[in-house]
Design brief:
- This protein starts with 7 loop residues before the first strand and ends with a strand.
- Helix content is about 25%, strand content about 35%.
- The strands form 3 sheets. A 5-stranded parallel β-sheet has the order 4-3-7-8-9, with helices on both faces.
- With about 170 residues, the protein is an alpha/beta fold.
- It has one domain: Rossmann fold.
- The protein contains 4 helices and 9 strands, in the order E-E-H-H-E-H-E-E-E-E-H-E-E.
- Helix 2 packs across helix 3.
């Protein structure tokens, strides 16, 4: 199935100069969505992971579907102030500012093997922060899976050397 036809370019969103990859048409299609989830996990053995962590916000949608598909639990990595109780967090920089990710303390247990899921990897800052956040929770990030990689932005190279990154689509 050609998933590229379900991804639409939205220029100058969320800021001028950014070309946003809108996956809403893919999520809305009853055949494309499950196909994408299966493709994201094709090379990852369910036995190699204990949990799936999804990065806010579209990573929640894909991550929860991946967790269900693999028979594993799901943990959201959220923006600050969105989780109750104690959290573990990390501040990081983006190409157009800074941000923070948090996870509720105790939802990722020490030693858990975690697959990190997001919709897109661009410059790699958010994914690198998610990997570090999982480590701060005393767990083991074992791989990342994304629907889209933008290879021209070299985000893969911000991740730890040799860290497995599975992607379904690549766009310029």
């Amino acid at each position: 199935m050609d998933l590229t036809r379900y991804v639409q370019d939205v220029p100058n969103f969320p800021r001028p100069g950014i070309l946003f990859k809108d996956i809403t048409p893919l999520l809305a299609d009853a055949r494309a969505f499950p196909y994408a989830v299966e493709a994201m996990t094709a090379t990852i053995s369910p036995g190699a992971i204990d949990l799936v962590a999804g990065i806010e916000a579209r990573g929640f949608i894909l991550g929860a579907a991946v967790a269900h598909h693999m028979g594993r639990g799901f943990v959201p990595l959220r923006k600050p102030g969105k989780l109750p109780g104690l959290t573990v967090g990390i501040d990081y920089t983006l190409e157009y500012g800074s941000d923070r990710l948090e996870v509720r303390d105790g939802t990722i247990w020490p030693g858990a093997r975690v697959l990190i899921v997001d919709d897109v990897i661009a410059t790699g800052g958010t994914m690198a922060a998610a990997i570090e956040l999982v480590k701060r929770a005393e767990a083991q990030p074992v791989a990342a899976a994304v629907l889209i990689e933008l290879p021209a932005l070299n985000g893969r190279f911000r991740l730890p050397s040799g860290f497995p990154l599975e992607r379904v689509l690549a766009f310029k």
